[in-house]
From TrEMBL:
Species: Burkholderia cenocepacia
Name this protein carries in UniProt: Uncharacterized protein
UniProt KW Signal keyword: yes
Keyword terms, alphabetized: Signal
Domain of life assignment: Bacteria
Keyword Signal: yes
Length: 172
């Protein structure tokens, strides 16, 4: 009996892999970006013209809206609000497609000073003084580099991060 369960598990894994590969192939054939998949070669070629955005240890290239249809947003039934507040990006090293929520994480002991430095430039600023962290949310991915550069000059010992999600979050 254990052998039969092992074979069933193996078949289920094989079928799941086959379906994931087929769906990624369809997405590439239709020119759609699929979160968590490797970007199609033509999209990567278009993005190489623009410089990569590097914040902390993350280096990505934003996908201009309207360049290609985003399959993940269609599949998830993404709302207009969530689409405006996020940007498809392609990771520079391996061309993996992810989604940035247009947030910048700053870690610095004086969270009030960081919050004050970006006041008026960001859509929202959420300080968490108990963990020395400020999350800065901007309306457009293009603003992240400018705000990051200004904060890095003003607070040279601060650490920065650019959160990018490479897989869908499933609601229960």
């Amino acid at each position: 009996m254990p052998m039969r369960n092992w074979n069933l598990t193996r078949v289920v894994h094989w079928v799941a892999t086959l379906l994931m590969t087929a769906s990624a192939g369809v997405a590439m054939a239709t020119g759609a970006l699929l979160q968590g998949a490797v970007a199609p070669a033509d999209v990567v070629q278009q993005l190489r013209a623009a410089p990569a955005v590097t914040i902390g240890g993350t280096s990505v290239r934003p996908v201009p809206s309207g360049t290609v249809r985003a399959a993940a947003a269609d599949r998830a039934g993404g709302s207009a609000q969530s689409e405006r507040d996020s940007t498809f990006v392609v990771r520079d090293g391996d061309n993996l497609v992810g989604v940035s929520t247009n947030d910048l994480i700053a870690v610095y002991p004086d969270t009030a000073a960081v919050s004050q430095a970006v006041a008026g430039q960001a859509k929202s600023v959420n300080p968490y003084p108990q963990i020395n962290t400020v999350i800065v949310h901007v309306g457009s991915f293009d603003q992240l580099s400018t705000i990051h550069a200004a904060l890095a000059r003003k607070f040279p010992t601060a650490k920065f991060g650019l959160p990018v999600r490479y897989s869908d979050i499933k609601k229960k």
